[in-house]
Specification:
The chain folds into two domains: 8-167, Leucine Aminopeptidase, subunit E, domain 1, CATH 3.40.220.10; 200-504, Zn peptidases (Aminopeptidase). The chain is 36% helix and 20% strand. The chain is built from 15 helices and 20 strands. α9 links the parallel β10 and β11. The radius of gyration is 24 Å and the shape is elongated. The two termini are 39 Å apart. The structure holds ligand BES, manganese (II) ion and zinc ion (ZN).
Length: 508
Amino acid sequence: MGSGKAVEFYIVQRAAAAGEDPVLALFLHEGEPLPAGGAAVDEACGGLLSRVIASGEFQGKARSTLLLHSAGKSGPRRVLLVGLGKRGALDVEGVRRAAGAAALAGQAAKAGEMSAVLPAPGGLRLEDLAAAFVEGSALALYRYLDHRTGEGAENPHPLVRVTLVAADPDARAALDRGVAFGRVLADAAVFARDVGNTPGNEGTPTFLAGKAREIASESGMKLTVLDRADMEREGMGGILGVARGTEEPPKFIVLEHNAGRADLPLYALVGKGVTFDSGGISLKPGADMHEMKFDKCGAVAVLATMRAVGRLKLPLRVAGICPATENLPSGKAYKPGDVVRTLGGRTVEILNTDAEGRMLLVDGITWAKRMQPRCIVDLATLTGACVVALGDAASGLFSTDDRLASSLESAGAAAGERLWRMPVYEEYTEQIKSDVADFKNTGGRNAGACTAAALLKAHAEGTPWAHLDIAGTAWGGKDRDYVRKGATGVGPRTLVRWLVAESAAPGK
Ligand code: BES
Ligand code: MN
Ligand code: ZN
Protein backbone atom coordinates (compact mmCIF):
# COMPACT_ATOMS: atom_id res chain seq x y z
CA MET A 1 0.00 0.00 0.00
CA GLY A 2 0.94 3.67 -0.30
CA SER A 3 4.68 3.74 0.04
CA GLY A 4 5.31 1.43 -2.90
CA LYS A 5 8.21 -0.96 -2.57
CA ALA A 6 9.37 -0.77 1.04
CA VAL A 7 13.05 -0.51 1.90
CA GLU A 8 14.57 -3.55 3.64
CA PHE A 9 17.38 -3.43 6.22
CA TYR A 10 20.35 -5.77 6.58
CA ILE A 11 23.40 -5.95 8.83
CA VAL A 12 26.87 -7.19 7.80
CA GLN A 13 29.96 -7.55 9.92
CA ARG A 14 33.10 -6.35 8.12
CA ALA A 15 35.34 -3.31 7.76
CA ALA A 16 33.80 -0.36 5.93
CA ALA A 17 36.48 -0.41 3.23
CA ALA A 18 36.27 -4.18 2.73
CA GLY A 19 33.28 -4.26 0.38
CA GLU A 20 32.63 -2.81 -3.04
CA ASP A 21 29.43 -1.07 -2.04
CA PRO A 22 27.67 0.81 -4.86
CA VAL A 23 27.05 3.60 -2.33
CA LEU A 24 28.53 3.74 1.18
CA ALA A 25 27.19 6.41 3.56
CA LEU A 26 29.61 7.80 6.15
CA PHE A 27 28.39 10.16 8.86
CA LEU A 28 30.65 13.03 9.93
CA HIS A 29 30.53 15.49 12.79
CA GLU A 30 31.08 19.14 11.98
CA GLY A 31 34.74 20.10 12.30
CA GLU A 32 35.93 16.55 13.01
CA PRO A 33 38.07 14.11 11.04
CA LEU A 34 36.76 10.91 9.45
CA PRO A 35 35.04 8.43 11.81
CA ALA A 36 36.31 4.94 12.69
CA GLY A 37 36.78 2.89 9.53
CA GLY A 38 36.74 6.08 7.48
CA ALA A 39 40.53 6.30 7.15
CA ALA A 40 40.67 2.94 5.36
CA VAL A 41 37.84 4.02 3.05
CA ASP A 42 39.71 7.26 2.38
CA GLU A 43 42.81 5.28 1.51
CA ALA A 44 40.85 2.99 -0.84
CA CYS A 45 39.53 6.13 -2.54
CA GLY A 46 43.02 7.59 -2.99
CA GLY A 47 42.62 10.26 -0.30
CA LEU A 48 39.50 11.77 -1.92
CA LEU A 49 37.61 12.06 1.37
CA SER A 50 40.35 13.85 3.27
CA ARG A 51 40.77 16.25 0.33
CA VAL A 52 37.10 17.33 0.24
CA ILE A 53 37.13 17.71 4.02
CA ALA A 54 40.41 19.67 4.07
CA SER A 55 39.20 21.94 1.26
CA GLY A 56 36.03 22.77 3.23
CA GLU A 57 33.79 21.39 0.45
CA PHE A 58 32.24 19.14 3.06
CA GLN A 59 31.97 20.55 6.58
CA GLY A 60 29.67 18.07 8.31
CA LYS A 61 26.81 20.54 8.79
CA ALA A 62 23.70 18.75 10.05
CA ARG A 63 21.93 16.87 7.23
CA SER A 64 24.26 18.14 4.47
CA THR A 65 25.24 15.44 1.96
CA LEU A 66 27.92 15.03 -0.69
CA LEU A 67 28.17 12.09 -3.12
CA LEU A 68 31.69 11.23 -4.33
CA HIS A 69 32.82 8.78 -7.00
CA SER A 70 35.83 6.70 -6.10
CA ALA A 71 38.46 5.84 -8.68
CA GLY A 72 40.01 3.31 -6.28
CA LYS A 73 40.56 -0.31 -7.32
CA SER A 74 38.86 -1.62 -4.17
CA GLY A 75 36.44 -0.27 -1.59
CA PRO A 76 33.10 1.43 -2.20
CA ARG A 77 32.30 2.66 -5.74
CA ARG A 78 30.70 5.81 -4.35
CA VAL A 79 30.84 7.42 -0.93
CA LEU A 80 28.01 9.51 0.46
CA LEU A 81 29.20 11.91 3.14
CA VAL A 82 26.41 12.89 5.55
CA GLY A 83 26.73 15.68 8.11
CA LEU A 84 25.73 15.23 11.76
CA GLY A 85 26.43 18.79 12.94
CA LYS A 86 28.28 19.58 16.17
CA ARG A 87 28.98 16.55 18.35
CA GLY A 88 27.52 17.94 21.60
CA ALA A 89 24.24 18.86 19.90
CA LEU A 90 23.48 15.41 18.47
CA ASP A 91 20.68 13.31 19.97
CA VAL A 92 18.71 10.31 18.60
CA GLU A 93 16.37 12.68 16.79
CA GLY A 94 19.43 14.19 15.06
CA VAL A 95 20.42 10.68 13.96
CA ARG A 96 16.87 10.10 12.67
CA ARG A 97 17.01 13.30 10.63
CA ALA A 98 20.52 12.62 9.31
CA ALA A 99 19.47 9.07 8.35
CA GLY A 100 16.53 10.57 6.46
CA ALA A 101 18.84 12.90 4.54
CA ALA A 102 21.18 9.98 3.80
CA ALA A 103 18.36 7.76 2.52
CA LEU A 104 17.02 10.46 0.20
CA ALA A 105 20.50 11.24 -1.16
CA GLY A 106 21.21 7.51 -1.43
CA GLN A 107 18.00 7.01 -3.38
CA ALA A 108 18.87 9.92 -5.68
CA ALA A 109 22.12 8.06 -6.52
CA LYS A 110 19.85 5.50 -8.24
CA ALA A 111 21.80 2.40 -7.26
CA GLY A 112 18.75 0.91 -5.54
CA GLU A 113 20.88 0.05 -2.54
CA MET A 114 23.04 1.77 0.02
CA SER A 115 25.39 0.68 2.78
CA ALA A 116 26.01 2.78 5.85
CA VAL A 117 28.28 2.93 8.85
CA LEU A 118 26.12 3.92 11.80
CA PRO A 119 27.12 7.20 13.48
CA ALA A 120 28.64 6.66 16.92
CA PRO A 121 28.07 9.76 19.06
CA GLY A 122 28.99 9.23 22.69
CA GLY A 123 26.40 8.64 25.37
CA LEU A 124 23.72 7.05 23.19
CA ARG A 125 22.89 3.33 23.19
CA LEU A 126 23.75 1.51 19.97
CA GLU A 127 20.33 -0.16 19.98
CA ASP A 128 18.57 3.23 20.11
CA LEU A 129 20.82 4.60 17.36
CA ALA A 130 20.04 1.64 15.11
CA ALA A 131 16.29 2.01 15.69
CA ALA A 132 16.48 5.75 14.98
CA PHE A 133 18.49 5.11 11.81
CA VAL A 134 15.84 2.69 10.54
CA GLU A 135 12.96 5.02 11.46
CA GLY A 136 14.60 8.06 9.86
CA SER A 137 15.57 6.38 6.62
CA ALA A 138 12.39 4.33 6.11
CA LEU A 139 10.12 7.28 6.90
CA ALA A 140 12.04 9.75 4.72
CA LEU A 141 11.52 7.45 1.72
CA TYR A 142 7.76 7.27 2.29
CA ARG A 143 5.45 8.46 -0.49
CA TYR A 144 1.67 8.14 -0.72
CA LEU A 145 1.06 7.04 -4.30
CA ASP A 146 -2.13 4.97 -4.02
CA HIS A 147 -4.21 7.26 -6.17
CA ARG A 148 -1.75 8.07 -8.91
CA THR A 149 -1.77 6.41 -12.28
CA GLY A 150 0.73 6.22 -15.13
CA GLU A 151 4.20 7.71 -14.70
CA GLY A 152 3.63 9.16 -11.24
CA ALA A 153 2.36 5.85 -9.87
CA GLU A 154 5.75 4.60 -8.81
CA ASN A 155 9.27 5.70 -8.10
CA PRO A 156 11.44 4.48 -11.02
CA HIS A 157 14.56 4.22 -8.81
CA PRO A 158 13.48 3.21 -5.32
CA LEU A 159 16.04 2.54 -2.59
CA VAL A 160 15.10 -1.01 -1.65
CA ARG A 161 18.10 -2.24 0.32
CA VAL A 162 20.00 -0.55 3.16
CA THR A 163 22.85 -2.46 4.80
CA LEU A 164 24.41 -1.44 8.09
CA VAL A 165 28.13 -2.21 8.02
CA ALA A 166 29.65 -2.85 11.45
CA ALA A 167 33.24 -3.95 12.05
CA ASP A 168 32.78 -4.90 15.70
CA PRO A 169 31.30 -8.42 16.13
CA ASP A 170 30.19 -7.51 19.67
CA ALA A 171 27.84 -4.91 18.23
CA ARG A 172 25.75 -7.51 16.42
CA ALA A 173 23.16 -8.28 19.10
CA ALA A 174 22.39 -4.63 19.85
CA LEU A 175 22.18 -3.84 16.13
CA ASP A 176 19.80 -6.73 15.53
CA ARG A 177 17.52 -5.62 18.36
CA GLY A 178 17.61 -1.96 17.31
CA VAL A 179 16.93 -2.68 13.64
CA ALA A 180 14.07 -5.06 14.48
CA PHE A 181 12.45 -2.52 16.83
CA GLY A 182 13.02 0.34 14.37
CA ARG A 183 11.30 -1.66 11.63
CA VAL A 184 8.21 -2.26 13.75
CA LEU A 185 8.08 1.45 14.65
CA ALA A 186 8.62 2.64 11.08
CA ASP A 187 6.07 0.18 9.78
CA ALA A 188 3.51 1.44 12.31
CA ALA A 189 4.12 5.05 11.24
CA VAL A 190 3.91 4.08 7.55
CA PHE A 191 0.63 2.29 8.24
CA ALA A 192 -0.64 5.41 10.04
CA ARG A 193 0.41 7.61 7.11
CA ASP A 194 -1.22 5.32 4.54
CA VAL A 195 -4.52 5.07 6.39
CA GLY A 196 -4.40 8.74 7.43
CA ASN A 197 -3.82 9.86 3.83
CA THR A 198 -6.70 7.78 2.50
CA PRO A 199 -9.29 10.20 1.08
CA GLY A 200 -12.65 10.46 2.80
CA ASN A 201 -14.65 8.69 0.10
CA GLU A 202 -12.53 5.59 0.58
CA GLY A 203 -11.29 5.99 4.16
CA THR A 204 -14.70 5.53 5.79
CA PRO A 205 -15.53 4.09 9.23
CA THR A 206 -16.10 0.76 7.45
CA PHE A 207 -12.60 1.05 5.95
CA LEU A 208 -11.11 1.63 9.43
CA ALA A 209 -13.01 -1.41 10.74
CA GLY A 210 -11.51 -3.42 7.87
CA LYS A 211 -8.00 -2.29 8.89
CA ALA A 212 -8.79 -3.31 12.47
CA ARG A 213 -9.86 -6.72 11.17
CA GLU A 214 -6.53 -7.17 9.36
CA ILE A 215 -4.64 -6.32 12.57
CA ALA A 216 -6.82 -8.65 14.61
CA SER A 217 -6.28 -11.61 12.29
CA GLU A 218 -2.54 -10.97 11.93
CA SER A 219 -1.93 -10.99 15.70
CA GLY A 220 -4.84 -13.02 17.02
CA MET A 221 -6.54 -10.11 18.75
CA LYS A 222 -10.16 -9.92 19.80
CA LEU A 223 -12.17 -7.52 17.65
CA THR A 224 -15.59 -6.05 18.35
CA VAL A 225 -17.22 -3.71 15.83
CA LEU A 226 -20.50 -2.11 16.84
CA ASP A 227 -22.74 -0.76 14.08
CA ARG A 228 -25.43 1.91 14.39
CA ALA A 229 -28.06 -0.45 15.81
CA ASP A 230 -25.59 -1.88 18.36
CA MET A 231 -24.65 1.62 19.44
CA GLU A 232 -28.31 2.50 19.87
CA ARG A 233 -28.79 -0.53 22.10
CA GLU A 234 -25.77 0.53 24.17
CA GLY A 235 -27.00 4.11 24.48
CA MET A 236 -24.02 5.79 22.81
CA GLY A 237 -25.68 9.14 22.29
CA GLY A 238 -22.40 10.97 21.77
CA ILE A 239 -21.21 9.26 18.60
CA LEU A 240 -24.79 8.64 17.45
CA GLY A 241 -25.60 12.34 17.69
CA VAL A 242 -22.72 13.13 15.35
CA ALA A 243 -23.55 10.18 13.07
CA ARG A 244 -27.19 11.26 12.57
CA GLY A 245 -26.22 13.49 9.67
CA THR A 246 -24.46 10.88 7.56
CA GLU A 247 -25.62 7.89 5.56
CA GLU A 248 -22.16 6.35 5.83
CA PRO A 249 -22.43 3.66 8.53
CA PRO A 250 -20.64 4.65 11.76
CA LYS A 251 -18.50 2.04 13.53
CA PHE A 252 -17.38 1.68 17.13
CA ILE A 253 -14.20 -0.41 16.92
CA VAL A 254 -12.62 -2.23 19.86
CA LEU A 255 -9.38 -4.20 19.38
CA GLU A 256 -8.00 -6.17 22.33
CA HIS A 257 -4.46 -7.51 22.57
CA ASN A 258 -4.08 -10.37 25.09
CA ALA A 259 -7.84 -10.14 25.74
CA GLY A 260 -8.07 -13.24 27.89
CA ARG A 261 -5.07 -12.46 30.09
CA ALA A 262 -6.67 -11.09 33.25
CA ASP A 263 -3.26 -11.50 34.93
CA LEU A 264 -1.80 -8.66 32.84
CA PRO A 265 -2.42 -4.96 33.48
CA LEU A 266 -4.79 -3.32 30.96
CA TYR A 267 -3.95 -0.13 29.06
CA ALA A 268 -6.75 1.56 27.11
CA LEU A 269 -6.17 3.72 24.05
CA VAL A 270 -9.01 5.77 22.56
CA GLY A 271 -8.79 7.50 19.16
CA LYS A 272 -11.06 10.03 17.44
CA GLY A 273 -12.12 8.58 14.10
CA VAL A 274 -13.96 11.34 12.27
CA THR A 275 -13.35 10.23 8.70
CA PHE A 276 -14.53 13.59 7.39
CA ASP A 277 -15.43 16.64 9.45
CA SER A 278 -17.51 19.20 7.54
CA GLY A 279 -18.55 20.79 10.82
CA GLY A 280 -22.12 19.54 10.34
CA ILE A 281 -24.91 22.14 10.63
CA SER A 282 -22.26 24.49 12.10
CA LEU A 283 -20.58 24.14 8.71
CA LYS A 284 -16.87 24.91 8.39
CA PRO A 285 -15.62 27.51 5.90
CA GLY A 286 -14.81 26.00 2.49
CA ALA A 287 -11.16 27.03 2.21
CA ASP A 288 -9.30 24.13 3.85
CA MET A 289 -12.22 21.81 4.42
CA HIS A 290 -10.65 19.03 2.36
CA GLU A 291 -8.00 18.68 5.09
CA MET A 292 -10.69 17.31 7.38
CA LYS A 293 -10.16 13.88 5.82
CA PHE A 294 -7.27 13.86 8.35
CA ASP A 295 -9.71 14.15 11.26
CA LYS A 296 -9.47 10.37 11.73
CA CYS A 297 -5.78 10.48 12.64
CA GLY A 298 -6.35 9.82 16.36
CA ALA A 299 -8.09 6.53 15.55
CA VAL A 300 -5.47 5.76 12.94
CA ALA A 301 -2.68 6.26 15.50
CA VAL A 302 -4.45 3.86 17.86
CA LEU A 303 -4.83 1.22 15.12
CA ALA A 304 -1.17 1.59 14.13
CA THR A 305 -0.12 1.22 17.76
CA MET A 306 -2.19 -1.95 18.10
CA ARG A 307 -0.55 -3.37 14.98
CA ALA A 308 2.91 -2.81 16.50
CA VAL A 309 1.86 -4.06 19.94
CA GLY A 310 0.68 -7.30 18.30
CA ARG A 311 3.88 -7.71 16.29
CA LEU A 312 6.02 -7.12 19.39
CA LYS A 313 3.81 -9.47 21.44
CA LEU A 314 4.00 -7.03 24.37
CA PRO A 315 3.27 -8.70 27.70
CA LEU A 316 0.45 -6.29 28.54
CA ARG A 317 -3.25 -6.19 27.85
CA VAL A 318 -3.97 -3.30 25.47
CA ALA A 319 -7.37 -2.17 24.21
CA GLY A 320 -7.67 0.10 21.17
CA ILE A 321 -11.03 1.85 21.04
CA CYS A 322 -11.97 3.85 17.94
CA PRO A 323 -15.35 5.50 17.61
CA ALA A 324 -15.65 6.38 13.92
CA THR A 325 -18.14 8.40 11.87
CA GLU A 326 -18.44 11.23 9.39
CA ASN A 327 -19.71 14.63 10.54
CA LEU A 328 -22.08 15.96 7.87
CA PRO A 329 -25.07 18.28 7.67
CA SER A 330 -28.39 16.82 6.49
CA GLY A 331 -32.10 16.87 7.25
CA LYS A 332 -31.45 14.41 10.04
CA ALA A 333 -28.26 15.95 11.43
CA TYR A 334 -27.91 16.93 15.07
CA LYS A 335 -28.35 20.67 15.63
CA PRO A 336 -27.16 23.43 17.94
CA GLY A 337 -29.45 23.40 20.97
CA ASP A 338 -29.96 19.61 20.90
CA VAL A 339 -29.23 17.68 24.07
CA VAL A 340 -27.72 14.19 23.79
CA ARG A 341 -27.37 11.49 26.45
CA THR A 342 -23.92 9.90 26.32
CA LEU A 343 -22.98 6.30 27.13
CA GLY A 344 -22.35 7.07 30.79
CA GLY A 345 -25.85 8.55 31.11
CA ARG A 346 -24.77 12.15 31.44
CA THR A 347 -26.18 14.81 29.13
CA VAL A 348 -24.44 17.28 26.82
CA GLU A 349 -26.01 20.33 25.22
CA ILE A 350 -24.76 20.83 21.68
CA LEU A 351 -23.82 24.45 21.08
CA ASN A 352 -21.73 23.82 17.98
CA THR A 353 -21.99 20.68 15.85
CA ASP A 354 -18.37 21.22 14.81
CA ALA A 355 -17.24 20.31 18.34
CA GLU A 356 -18.00 16.68 17.42
CA GLY A 357 -14.77 14.90 18.32
CA ARG A 358 -15.32 15.22 22.05
CA MET A 359 -18.79 13.66 21.63
CA LEU A 360 -17.23 10.52 20.12
CA LEU A 361 -14.46 10.47 22.71
CA VAL A 362 -16.85 10.75 25.66
CA ASP A 363 -18.48 7.46 24.59
CA GLY A 364 -15.09 5.91 23.84
CA ILE A 365 -13.66 6.93 27.21
CA THR A 366 -16.72 5.64 29.05
CA TRP A 367 -16.40 2.31 27.23
CA ALA A 368 -12.70 2.22 28.17
CA LYS A 369 -13.47 3.02 31.80
CA ARG A 370 -15.87 0.10 32.03
CA MET A 371 -13.00 -2.22 31.09
CA GLN A 372 -11.25 -1.06 34.30
CA PRO A 373 -7.89 -0.23 32.76
CA ARG A 374 -4.83 0.95 34.65
CA CYS A 375 -5.06 4.14 32.59
CA ILE A 376 -6.71 5.67 29.53
CA VAL A 377 -4.81 7.59 26.84
CA ASP A 378 -6.83 9.26 24.11
CA LEU A 379 -5.58 10.82 20.87
CA ALA A 380 -7.54 13.27 18.75
CA THR A 381 -7.25 16.01 16.17
CA LEU A 382 -9.50 17.81 18.60
CA THR A 383 -9.16 21.58 18.43
CA GLY A 384 -8.04 24.37 16.16
CA ALA A 385 -7.19 26.15 19.42
CA CYS A 386 -4.40 23.64 20.07
CA VAL A 387 -2.94 24.47 16.64
CA VAL A 388 -3.08 28.17 17.55
CA ALA A 389 -1.28 27.45 20.83
CA LEU A 390 1.46 25.05 19.72
CA GLY A 391 1.51 24.98 15.92
CA ASP A 392 3.10 21.84 14.49
CA ALA A 393 6.00 21.88 17.00
CA ALA A 394 4.27 19.77 19.66
CA SER A 395 1.07 17.92 20.50
CA GLY A 396 -0.88 19.13 23.53
CA LEU A 397 -0.72 16.79 26.54
CA PHE A 398 -3.50 17.01 29.11
CA SER A 399 -3.48 14.72 32.12
CA THR A 400 -4.78 14.29 35.62
CA ASP A 401 -1.85 12.01 36.50
CA ASP A 402 1.71 13.33 36.74
CA ARG A 403 3.36 9.94 36.52
CA LEU A 404 1.42 9.03 33.39
CA ALA A 405 2.10 12.45 31.87
CA SER A 406 5.84 12.28 32.44
CA SER A 407 6.18 8.73 31.12
CA LEU A 408 4.35 9.83 27.96
CA GLU A 409 6.59 12.91 27.73
CA SER A 410 9.75 10.78 27.86
CA ALA A 411 8.40 8.39 25.23
CA GLY A 412 7.52 11.35 23.01
CA ALA A 413 10.99 12.83 23.44
CA ALA A 414 12.61 9.49 22.52
CA ALA A 415 10.40 9.27 19.42
CA GLY A 416 11.10 12.84 18.29
CA GLU A 417 7.39 13.63 18.78
CA ARG A 418 7.17 16.43 21.33
CA LEU A 419 4.38 16.57 23.88
CA TRP A 420 3.76 19.83 25.69
CA ARG A 421 1.89 19.71 28.98
CA MET A 422 -1.28 21.81 29.10
CA PRO A 423 -3.39 22.62 32.18
CA VAL A 424 -6.54 20.81 33.37
CA TYR A 425 -7.81 23.43 35.84
CA GLU A 426 -11.28 23.27 37.40
CA GLU A 427 -12.03 26.65 35.80
CA TYR A 428 -12.27 24.91 32.42
CA THR A 429 -14.84 22.45 33.76
CA GLU A 430 -16.83 25.42 35.10
CA GLN A 431 -16.67 26.93 31.61
CA ILE A 432 -18.54 23.95 30.10
CA LYS A 433 -21.42 23.76 32.63
CA SER A 434 -24.73 24.06 30.80
CA ASP A 435 -28.00 25.73 31.90
CA VAL A 436 -30.10 22.89 30.51
CA ALA A 437 -27.84 19.78 30.63
CA ASP A 438 -24.86 18.48 32.63
CA PHE A 439 -22.37 19.96 30.17
CA LYS A 440 -22.24 21.91 26.93
CA ASN A 441 -19.98 20.84 24.09
CA THR A 442 -18.13 24.14 23.74
CA GLY A 443 -16.80 26.58 26.29
CA GLY A 444 -16.52 29.67 24.13
CA ARG A 445 -13.48 31.17 22.48
CA ASN A 446 -11.07 31.27 25.42
CA ALA A 447 -8.88 28.25 26.18
CA GLY A 448 -10.58 26.13 23.51
CA ALA A 449 -8.14 23.23 23.74
CA CYS A 450 -8.49 23.17 27.53
CA THR A 451 -12.29 23.27 27.67
CA ALA A 452 -12.44 20.41 25.14
CA ALA A 453 -10.08 18.44 27.39
CA ALA A 454 -12.26 19.32 30.42
CA LEU A 455 -15.24 17.42 28.96
CA LEU A 456 -13.04 14.35 28.45
CA LYS A 457 -11.56 14.67 31.93
CA ALA A 458 -15.05 14.75 33.47
CA HIS A 459 -15.82 11.42 31.80
CA ALA A 460 -12.48 9.75 32.62
CA GLU A 461 -12.80 10.73 36.31
CA GLY A 462 -11.54 8.00 38.62
CA THR A 463 -9.14 6.46 36.10
CA PRO A 464 -5.68 7.92 35.38
CA TRP A 465 -6.13 9.64 32.04
CA ALA A 466 -4.14 11.53 29.43
CA HIS A 467 -5.31 13.25 26.26
CA LEU A 468 -3.09 14.09 23.30
CA ASP A 469 -4.45 16.85 21.09
CA ILE A 470 -2.69 16.10 17.78
CA ALA A 471 -4.60 18.68 15.70
CA GLY A 472 -1.36 20.51 14.84
CA THR A 473 0.90 17.49 14.39
CA ALA A 474 -1.20 14.86 12.58
CA TRP A 475 -0.66 16.28 9.12
CA GLY A 476 1.49 18.91 7.47
CA GLY A 477 1.54 21.08 4.38
CA LYS A 478 5.20 20.57 3.55
CA ASP A 479 7.99 17.99 3.68
CA ARG A 480 10.12 18.28 6.83
CA ASP A 481 13.15 16.04 7.40
CA TYR A 482 11.87 12.46 7.51
CA VAL A 483 8.23 13.58 7.60
CA ARG A 484 6.46 13.94 4.27
CA LYS A 485 3.64 16.34 3.49
CA GLY A 486 0.20 14.91 4.33
CA ALA A 487 -0.49 12.56 7.25
CA THR A 488 2.63 12.46 9.47
CA GLY A 489 1.88 9.17 11.23
CA VAL A 490 2.28 10.90 14.61
CA GLY A 491 1.48 8.84 17.71
CA PRO A 492 2.38 5.16 17.32
CA ARG A 493 6.16 5.63 17.67
CA THR A 494 5.53 7.42 20.96
CA LEU A 495 2.82 5.10 22.27
CA VAL A 496 4.74 1.92 21.43
CA ARG A 497 7.83 3.24 23.27
CA TRP A 498 5.63 4.16 26.21
CA LEU A 499 3.98 0.71 26.32
CA VAL A 500 7.35 -1.03 26.02
CA ALA A 501 8.58 0.97 29.04
CA GLU A 502 5.36 0.11 30.92
CA SER A 503 5.81 -3.58 30.17
CA ALA A 504 9.28 -3.41 31.70
CA ALA A 505 8.07 -1.65 34.85
CA PRO A 506 4.25 -1.47 34.92
CA GLY A 507 2.89 1.41 36.95
CA LYS A 508 6.32 2.53 38.19
N1 BES B 1 -11.42 18.55 13.77
C1 BES B 1 -11.60 19.85 14.30
C2 BES B 1 -10.34 20.43 14.91
C3 BES B 1 -9.30 20.90 13.94
C4 BES B 1 -9.42 22.10 13.29
C5 BES B 1 -8.16 20.17 13.74
C6 BES B 1 -8.43 22.55 12.43
C7 BES B 1 -7.15 20.62 12.91
C8 BES B 1 -7.29 21.80 12.24
C9 BES B 1 -12.65 19.80 15.40
O1 BES B 1 -13.67 18.88 15.24
C10 BES B 1 -13.28 21.15 15.44
O2 BES B 1 -13.91 21.50 14.48
N2 BES B 1 -13.12 21.86 16.54
C11 BES B 1 -13.65 23.17 16.66
C12 BES B 1 -14.25 23.31 18.04
C13 BES B 1 -15.05 24.56 18.23
C14 BES B 1 -16.30 24.51 17.38
C15 BES B 1 -15.40 24.68 19.68
C16 BES B 1 -12.50 24.16 16.46
O3 BES B 1 -11.40 23.88 16.93
O4 BES B 1 -12.72 25.17 15.81
MN1 MN C 1 -15.24 19.65 14.07
ZN1 ZN D 1 -13.21 17.22 14.10
